[in-house]
Amino acid sequence: MAEDQYKPHASRDDAAEARYDRKAFIVMMALFLVAPAVVYPVFVMKALCFALFACAFNLLLGFGGLLSFGHAMFLGMAGYVSAHAAKVWGLPPELAILAGTAASTVLGVFAGMLAIRRQGIYFAMVTLALAQMVYFFCLQAPFTHGEDGIQAVPRGMFLGFLDLSSTTVLYYVVLAIFTAGFLLIYRVIHSPFGQVLKAIRENEPRAVSLGYRTEHYKLAAFVLSAGLAGLAGATKAIVFQLASLTDVHWSMSGEVVLMTLLGGMGTIFGPVVGAFAIITMENYLAELGSWFTITQGAIFVVCVLAFRRGIIGELEAWLRRRRAG
Amino acid sequence: MTEIFGVPTQALFGQLLIGLINGSFYALLSLGLAVIFGLLNIINFTHGAQYMMGAFAAYFLLNKLGLNYWWALVLAPLAVGATGVIIERLMLSRLYKLDHLYGLLLTFGLALIIQGAFRHEYGSAGLPYSIPEILSGGTNLGFMFLPKYRAWVIVASLVVCVGTWLVIERTKLGAYLRAATENPAMVQAFGVNVPRMITLTYGFGVALAGLAGVMAAPIYQVNPLMGADTIIVVFAVVVIGGMGSIMGAVITGFGLGVIEGLTKVFYPEASNTVIFVIMAIVLMIRPQGLFGSR
Amino acid sequence: MIFKRKLLAAAAMLALSAGAQAQISGNVVKIGVLNDQSSLYADLSGQGSVLAAKMAIEDFGAAKKGIKTEVIFADHQNKADVGSQIANKWYDAEGVDVIVDTPNSGVALAVNQITKDKKKAFLVSGAATADLSGKACSPNTLHWTYDTWMLANGTGNAIVKTGGDSWFFLTADYAFGHALERDTEAVVLKTGGKVLGKVRHPLNTQDFSSFLLQAQASKAKIVGLANAGGDTTNAIKQASEFGIVKGGQNLAGLLVFLTDVHALGLEKAQGLIFTESWYWDLNDDSRAWTKRFAAANGGKYPTMVHAGVYSAVLHYLKAVEATKSDDGTKVIAEMKKLPTDDPLFGKGTVRADGRKVHPAYLVEVKKPSESKGPYDYYKVRATIPADQAFRPMAEGGCPLVAAK
Fold first, then answer.
1. What domain count does chain A have?
2. Most CB within 10 Å of its CB: which of A139, A208, B157, C372?
């Protein structure tokens, strides 16, 4: 998807960009650090997990130019493995989360090898097909308990000394995980690897002619995205002590597209904002049932028609206009 | 009685026939989708919701206006097609210069809105709609009892599919349409109103979805979510058939019905998933689909 | 003199404060109705349950007795994670004392666990899994209206005894469906019937023609529908189309509600046999209550789930009054001690394992010609007395009972 809308940084000075990013990061971290005092912490933790999921997805879409319609398979599969590891194998939470992340990474390798061979809508369709098969597997496999899901997952002691049954401790652990994932994505995007990825997104034939093995780069981005989405899912399973089919259903794949689109594709902070916006809305509208679906749809429509850069994208464009004008 | 893989042949024939009937629904639905994608390059995710609207339209026509099934067969697709025209004019037309995937996201959003609104109004238990008198009952074929209505579905679906294919591939109108999508500027220069053709084509594809909805109303519960899970299956059918090929979509639709029917006999739990396995395989081996040319 | 007066005054004040509900948290008894407001089960529970809870508060006379109450509701969308989050938020941040209803066994089990951890109260009306009074039983949860054992035994037993002794199962392929099939099969076999075959269909199947064909081919007298919601109504509709009933077989719905029959229409649903624990037309009391309910519910009649919410909340409030507290564990214990009595279910008891017991009714859907008015859908074929309707406490594997 090589559209101008996705590269708001196209004409920006790199140093200025880095400064802006650093400032935004500090603001974001400050907000998150004090959040539990003001807002119900479980809600913020949920939003953080989804923010990480959206950031991982954005890595593939916004920076890699690949729209995956099946990302829920990574979120959900990792959640199931993590929940099972913690509950049945009795692993401590950090190992359970690692197990979940590893599972989704491996799944990402297999899925990626199959999907990368196609482009555009066909790529999206392959990811959807694979996600449906994963859904079916999760529905049938005895260890997932089908519609009931894996319940009563123990939280345990993180690294042996942090008691996760305390909401506050759990919150800061989740925040740490999110931050680690976020920073990793940031580093990847600003590394030579990330530059090549952008080049591939903008003009793959040219990248090929320059000698880059584009398939390998795309696969690497896919696997990284899958692994980080899995990290989000595995953490979420521990926070909510539950792994369910909702997380592998295709509507979850649609939700993460929405979060990224709303927040701003191809921006660093966009997915975080998008995730928080959608989760907040879900919170308020949960009581009103169908209104949430209608609102989700309306946001999709409005974003596509008039707001393609998303919240952060529009913000950045406005800031640039101000600085230039 | 002879048996194949432990299933008596008689039962197998019955299942195959049922598969063909279901296939005709898939064919009708994927026909509309294939027309829209094949000719307009629009990925119409709203198709499932439009199918649902067709069924609801039939319900309203019966319960609010007293118009029976036969009226509904004509009026409901027109009504749903009209909504399609509005969608195209107001929203889709703005996205043509952008990447196709935006069209996909827009129609996905519209599907959510439509489904949510109907669910809000009508709940999810569904509304009753009966099979018209003349088509109720059935005949005993020996190996199974075939309801008349289901036989009607196969026939009607075949007629519509073949008819549509003929119009698009063999008539002048169809030729204009195909030319217009390949090279709009040139066709416009010849005096053909291309934007209007596009709008009407989208409307036609949507009307086909509505028609499928009317045909579904007597046998499936009329409920707001009836299109929701069907849409991804129909997508799979179109992708397998080849996204540019109308005949491909129709044949794949019927084929899928049969394969699903067989799966229901041997491994019923997987009957919802077998299509995706096939789609993944086809995309690996022949990415443009079985009959596609792009 | 003055000292004595002061002493009297002090004593009076002490007496007054002891009588006040100082032990009710936040001075309000907050009731949270958690159910499906927008999809599969919205009609059988949904807003109707909220109304039922409010009617219970009204009939209990909470306002007159000086007990402040508040009712809130939320949609769990049939998702265990959404339900968990709402339950957590309600207990932690919104001071909810008791959660009621919760159809969908997966969600109910999740909320059951959370309620136990936080020592609040959970009154289940909508969910089916018999595990709630079995291996998942808890001192903070009561299972009120019905459960899979009651359904399986009521329907299975009664049908086999009236001649339906060969069965073919159409089962939704998920935990609830499997449980229902397993429980019903056990009953059928125990009463001397046979199971000629079964087929599992995916959840949310639109088309049952292929499965119905298999059912027809089996020549079983009874086609048992071990599914719920849209799957059941779709299967019934299509069974009518394929002439299953006309061909001499009967359908046994294992989980059917008034709202399902209403959605199908009597033409399609006639002859269907199933078990419920309450029907609006049972007696004068239930009819009177239904009239009030329907008037406030847009003319829609109540299901047994709604009745269960009313009955449970009424009993809960009595227990709150008796213990002068809304502490979950205490009130639940009290609810087990007090015998129940309400206009809908009559007199009954709540067992140690949390199971409320009352009679169950085997009903058959009327033919269109037999129906004389709105929602006049059932004829009661048999009444199963309370002591036989539910699983014996000893067989449930509930840890609370085993400890005795």
1. 1
2. B157
Task: Using CB atoms, pick whichever of C38, C93, C106 lies closest to residue A148.
Answer: C106
The verdict on domain B9-285 having CATH code 1.10.3470 is yes
**Does any domain span residue A221?**
yes
- The 8 Å CB, 24+ separation contacts for A170-174 are A170/A41, A170/A45, A170/A239, A171/A36, A171/A41, A171/A44, A171/A45, A174/A45, A174/A48, A174/A49, A174/A235, A174/A239
Measured between alpha carbons, how far is A138 from A77 in angstroms, rounded to an integer? 8
User: Does domain C26-146+282-358 bear CATH number 3.40.50.2300?
Assistant: yes
Chain A hits for C92, Cβ within 8 Å: 40, 42
Q: In the block, which residue shows the tokens 């990061």?
A: A25
pLDDT number for residue C18: 41
Q: Which residues of C touch B213 (CB under 8 A)?
A: none
Burial (CB < 10 A; 0-12, 13-18, 19+), residue B14, is buried
Chains within contact range of chain B (3+ C-beta pairs < 8 Å): A, C
Q: Express each pLDDT in C298-326 by its tens digit.
A: 889 999 999 999 999 999 999 999 998 88
Is A12's pLDDT higher than 70?
no
Domain hosting residue A223, numbered range: 4-249
Please say whether the beta carbons of C273 and C155 come within 8 A. Answer: yes
Residue C5 pLDDT grade (very low, low, confident, very high; cuts 50, 70, 90): low
Question: pLDDT tens-digit profile of C245-284?
Answer: 888 888 888 999 998 898 888 888 888 889 999 999 999 9
**ipTM of the assembly?**
0.83
Contact at 8 Å (CB) between A138 and A243? no
**Pairwise CA distance, residues A244 & A149, whole Å:** 4
Span C113-125, mean pLDDT? 94
DSSP symbol at C394: G
A142 interfaces chain B, CB cutoff of 8 Å? no
User: Residue C27 is encoded by which pair of tokens?
Assistant: 């001075």
Q: Is residue A323 part of a domain?
A: no
Rg (CA), chain A: 19
Contact assignment for C207 to B15 by CB distance below 8 Å: no
CB C221 within 8 A of CB C249: yes
CA nearest neighbour of B205 among B71, B45, B97, B62: B45
A11 by Cβ neighbours in 10 Å (0-12 / 13-18 / 19+) ranks as exposed
- Tell how many helices (H) and how many strands (E) occur in chain C: 16, 15
Euclidean distance between CA atoms B211 and A14, whole angstroms = 56
Residue B171 sits at the chain C interface (C-beta within 8 Å):
no
Superfamily of domain C149-276+360-384: Response regulator (3.40.50.2300)
Neighbouring chains to A with at least 3 Cβ pairs closer than 8 Å: B, C
Q: At what angle do helices B100-122 and A250-263 cross, to 10 degrees?
A: 120
Partner-chain contact C43 B125, CB within 8 Å: yes
Amino acid at B51: Y
**Distance (Å) from the C-alpha of residue C293 to the closest C-alpha of chain A?**
22
Indicate left, alpha or beta for A145 from its phi (over 0: left) and psi (-120 to 50: alpha): left
Domain ranges of chain C: 26-146+282-358, 149-276+360-384
Question: Is-contact C353 C341, C-beta < 8 A?
Answer: no
CA distance B255 to chain C (A): 16
- Do C241 and B219 make contact, defined as CB atoms within 8 angstroms? yes
Q: Which residues lie closer than 8 Å to C121 by C-beta, 6 or more apart?
A: C97, C98, C99, C115, C140, C141, C142, C316, C326, C328, C329, C331, C332
**Considering CB atoms only, which of C43, C214, C237 is closest to B221?**
C237
CB–CB contact A129 B269 (8 Å):
no
Q: What pLDDT, on the 0 to 100 scale, is given for residue B183?
A: 80
Residue A1 has pLDDT above 60, yes or no: no
Residue B277 has pLDDT above 60, yes or no: yes
- Tell whether A254 lies on the interface with B, counting CB pairs under 8 A: yes
Nearest-angstrom CA–CA distance, A228 and A236:
12
